[in-house]
Every structure is written in structure tokens, then in C-alpha cells.
Design brief:
Elements lengths: L4 E6 L9 H9 L6 H13 L6 H12 L7 E5 L6 H10 L4 E6 L6 H18 L5 E4 L7 H16 L8 E7 L3 H5 L8 H17 L5 E6 L14 H10 L4 E5 L8 H18 L2 E4 L7 H15 L30
Parallel strand pairs: 1-2, 1-3, 3-4, 5-6, 5-7, 7-8
Helix pairs in contact: 4-5, 6-8, 6-11, 9-10
Bound molecules: coproporphyrin III and fe (ii) ion.
Coproporphyrin III (HT9) binds next to helix 1, helix 2, helix 5 and helix 10.
Amino acid sequence: MAYDAFLLVSFGGPEGQEDVLPFLENVTRGRGIPAERLEAVAGHYRHFGGVSPINAQNRALLEALRPHLDLPIYWGNRNWHPFLEDAVRQMRDDGVRHALAFVTSPFGSNSSCRQYQDDIARAREAVGPDAPVIDKIRHFHDHPLYVESHAAAVRAALETLPSRLSARLVFTAHSIPTAMNDASGPGGVGRYRAQLLETAALVAAAAAPELDWDLVWQSRSGPPQVPWLEPDVNDHLEALSAAGVREVVVSPIGFISDHLEVIWDLDNEARDTAAKLGLVFARAATPGTDPRFVTMIRQLVDERVLAHSNVRHALGTVPTWDFCPADCCVSPKRV
Ligand SMILES: CC1=C(CCC(=O)O)c2cc3nc(cc4[nH]c(cc5[nH]c(cc1n2)c(C)c5CCC(=O)O)c(CCC(=O)O)c4C)C(CCC(=O)O)=C3C
Ligand SMILES: [Fe+2]
């Protein structure tokens, strides 16, 4: 396939106190998030001066990628500047015809895949008929370099523990409504949780096959009466402590960099929970600009540009594809 641009597509985050509320409005418009939850999340951003770490992390990723890509690079977010629509307009003005998009989430679900594709479609529509065609790069939840990047971080975190032999690995990902999980994948097969279980198993096997591990969830939102994936990481730490576990490594395999959810919900909240329980707690790093992760992106681009569809680096058995079927992760839209 002849691509003439690379587009990084991400979530976006506020870059100052005055950005916090308009950003949260963009994220939660029509989504029924309770006011108390929004207040709390606004407080997390305010705690860091109203600055989300995510935009700086994307800038750093683009700088790390630049020497590895032969294509012009663009960047657009769903929820904050630089917006996707502006990036698509710039591409159009620069004469780009067919861009390849890397979305900063490895997994399927309405929130982590379909929503990004819908937003790309909306941005193209806004720009008009001469907007470039934009293809999304496939899921990479079991790419050997995604797995190895997290596994190396788990090994490094284990090194910091007094007695790594009795440690428990606790893998975390962003919780989503159970109905959204059930509807993820073609025809609704619970693909989000299935992919995360596969990532967790692969990272555990690569990092410390002798240790027990669990997959749990973090950063639940939404109204309390709507069921989301459980258990929450904090509840799980209590259960582990009650069962006699003394040391944990928490590895956020659902995140590619240290988003606000990682630095607040894990480094503040979960760490506090662990401290109250007397658990030794180490948080494993996310890929960020790890050279393995950067190389993975290069490989995913090559996979599409060279159209060597028989060369798909993948360690697991949950299938991935270049173009999502029309019925993938569509319904229910939002709960
Ligand atoms: C699966 C998933 C990912 C991982 C995949 C991906 O990366 O896309 C993710 C990432 C992120 N989520 C983020 C921020 C927020 N997510 C929210 C709300 C929600 N997230 C959801 C799911 C996910 N979210 C859902 C189902 C909701 C409910 C509303 C809805 O149905 O859409 C809210 C509203 C307040 C609240 O938390 O209630 C905020 C502020 C940021 C930026 C962080 C930063 O600034 O560093 C990032 C990377
Ligand atoms: Fe989110």
C-alpha cells in the first residue's frame, strides 16, 4: 500500500488550569458521567497544575519515532489540541492522499478503537471531499515488542522488592462498562477483556513465569448503578493482603505511557491503599519512548507499507486485522 503520511491519533489532555473544564466537556459530552465524578477527575488534573502528561508524552514519542519513519508525521487528538480535525486539514493542505494512523491504544472496544475510527471519520467529513483517506494500524496487544517492553519493566520493578520470590503480579487496564466489553469485537465477543488477558499472560510468562498474576481494572467512571469491569485494583490489593500476599508489582499493561490515570490512580491511590495494608508496592513502567516500543511502531508501519501480510509479529491467538469489520465494537454506543 502506498502511504504518504503517518498520523499519530491520541486522546489529548489539558495543558493548563483553564483547559481542564473544556477538555472534560469534550470527553464526557452526552455520556452521563455524574457531576461528583467529574469534580473528582477535575481535581486530579488540578493537582498537576491542570496539565495532563499525555501531550508531552506524545511529543516525546513523535521525536523518538522521527528517525525511524520515512513518512511525513502528523498528530491529532480526539479531545484536545492539537485536534484531529486540524491535523486532517493540514494533511489535505499539504497534498496528503492516504495516511496510516497509529492510535495510542493497543486494544479493541468502543472506547479504545471504534470511537477513534468514528472521530477520524468525523474529522475527514469536516475537512471535506479532498480529505486524505486514513487507515488505522491494527491492534498490537500481543506484539512481541509490546509484550517485551512491559515485561522488561516488570523485571525492573521486581528488582526493587526485598524478596521477589513471594511477589504477586497485578496487571491493570482501564475499566469499561461490562456491556461495552461484551459488545467489543466482531459480533460482540468480549474482545477487550480477551486481549488484555492475553497481554497479561504473555507479559507474566516473559517476565516472571514462577509468579502468580491477576488482571484487574482501574479508573472506573460512570454512574454507580452501571456495571463496569471488576475487581478494582484497590479492592484487589485488599483481597491479596487478606490472603497473605506481602509484595506486589502493579503493571499497567493497558496503557502505553504514564497517563494521568497511571500517575493518579496507581501512583497515588493504589500506592496509598498498599501502604495502609502494609503491602510492599512497586509500579512497573509503561512503554513511553522505550526503543522496543518505537521499533514496534516502525514494524507495524512496515507491515502495512510493504504489505507483507504474512509477516505479522504476534505472540497470541486472539486474532487481529487491518480493517475492522463493520459490526466490530459498535453497540452499545455508550452506557
Ligand atoms: C478504555 C479506555 C482507555 C484506554 C484506551 C485509550 O487510550 O483510549 C481510556 C484512556 C484515557 N482516558 C482518559 C481520560 C478520561 N477518560 C474518561 C472517561 C472514560 N474513559 C473510558 C475508557 C477508556 N479511557 C470510558 C468508557 C469512560 C467513560 C466515558 C465514555 O464512555 O467515554 C474521562 C472522564 C472523567 C472520568 O474519568 O470519569 C477522562 C478525563 C485519558 C487521558 C489521560 C490523561 O490526561 O493523561 C486516556 C488516555
Ligand atoms: Fe478514559
